[in-house]
Amino acid sequence: MTTNILPAQSRLFKPLKVGNMELKHRIVLPPLTRNRNDDDHIPLPFMAKYYGDRASVPGTLIISEATSVSHLEEGQYNIPGFVSDLQVEAWTKIIEAVHSKKSYYFQQIWGMVRASFPELMAKKGLRYRSSSAVAMKGRDTIPEAMTEDEIQEIIQSFVDTAKKVIGAGGDGVEIHSAHGYLLDQFLSDAVNLRTDGWGGSIQNRARLVLEVVKAVVDAIGADRVALRLSPYAAFQGAEKEDIEGQYLYIIKELKKMDTPLAYLSLVEATGDPGALVRGDKPVNQGKTLDFILEEWSKWSPVIVAGGYLPDTAAQALEDRYKDFDVLVAFGRYFLANPDLVFRIQKGLELNKYQRPTFYLNMSEEGYNDYPFSKEYLAAYPAAQAIKLGKNSYN
Ligand code: PHB
């Protein structure tokens, strides 16, 4: 069945409680790596304008770009960390910018290990690591398998950073276990060849992500913790032989916890960044998240990402996801439209995104130069001041 419903009249604009947050609609800014941090992995001041602008309709959930939990994990140029005082200070201003718009803020937190650039790690004198000594396709450098001590240390780093995010005023953290980064390198049987307690079976491969989730929940409370998974993505070689078995195990273990996580964030087969961003061959197309949603049910809300447009998102909430508490991520269109939520609500045309400027390191071009609609500026005169650079946080 397909429903033709205007996005403004669809469940996209049905408020939803997520964790402790009272969201006014279900349009979410998902984590987007944009390389606008400085060479010490500290957010540049103009990032506060970017995040604050996208929070411009009150009651919006803003999720930060992926942020490293340890200096050992700052493995690509100009990605951020949430470790040093200067990093925490810079993020605090960003969180304030979002909250000043009466919107909500989750920090996505990650380790990168094998997805780090080997030459940057060498330059910093840091070990290039992974779950196992398995090289990423197209790279000569073979990572070293993480030791037991290093695994314990990274769990602690997730806890330490989660506490810092809450200390800085954040509403919660989203643990990144997707797209071939640290936790996904343990989940994937193509990468994780360990024969100790961290590999060799579905249970052991899931152990690290589950231990990280539980440790962070113990530290800051389940209603401030979310988890992102990408069951179908082949990005950075983190494929799984038994996708359903691997992910159903994780979902069932999460449901054994006393309190539900704030939300689960799931990337659909159509959202694989390998295919979407890098032009790799799409894999697992046509596969759905139904098996996870049926198991998860309404334990807590679920964010889906998969290249949605306003009308396809509205339709997904009315049809496929009608029995679940689902929100929809808009990555590229939220980048290009600071007032995306307003535009969707009013049925306005969207700015087009400019792919060549997605990853323009440290540049405001392709970042803070996408315009608000004139209709938004008329409806929210305060945004005029922001546009003219009169806000207090830039
Ligand atoms: C990317 O840098 O392309 C990237 C980062 C994080 C993701 C996906 C893609 O989850």
Q: Would you give an account of this structure?
A:
With 394 residues, this protein is of the alpha/beta class. It has a single domain (7-379), classed as Aldolase class I (TIM Barrel), CATH 3.20.20.70. Helix content is 34%, strand content 12%. The protein is built from 14 helices and 13 strands. α2 links the parallel β5 and β6 (104-110). The longest helix has 20 residues, at 148-167. It is globular, with a radius of gyration of 20 Å. The model is unreliable at 388-394 (pLDDT under 50). It binds P-hydroxybenzoic acid. Residues 33, 66, 178-179, 273, 277 line the site of P-hydroxybenzoic acid. Residues 33, 66, 178-179, 273, 277 line the site of P-hydroxybenzoic acid (PHB). Residues 12-351 form the NADH:flavin oxidoreductase/NADH oxidase N-terminal domain. InterPro entries: Aldolase_TIM, OxRdtase_FMN_N, Oye-like.
| Largest sheet, strands/sense/barrel | 8 strands, parallel, barrel
Instruction: Count structural domains.
Output: 1
Helical content (DSSP H or I, runs of 4+): 25-40%
Looking at the structure, what is the overall shape? globular
CATH fold field value = TIM Barrel
Mean pLDDT: 95
Regarding quaternary structure, what we see is: single chain
> What is the name of the CATH class?
Alpha Beta
Whole-Å distance between the termini?
A: 48 Å
Order of H and E elements: EEEHEEHEHEEHEHHEHEHHEHEHHHH
CATH superfamily: Aldolase class I
Bound molecules: P-hydroxybenzoic acid
Structural class: alpha/beta
- Can you count the beta strands? 13
GO molecular function: FMN binding; NADPH dehydrogenase activity
Domain NADH:flavin oxidoreductase/NADH oxidase N-terminal: 12-351
InterPro entries: Aldolase_TIM, OxRdtase_FMN_N, Oye-like
Pfam families: Oxidored_FMN
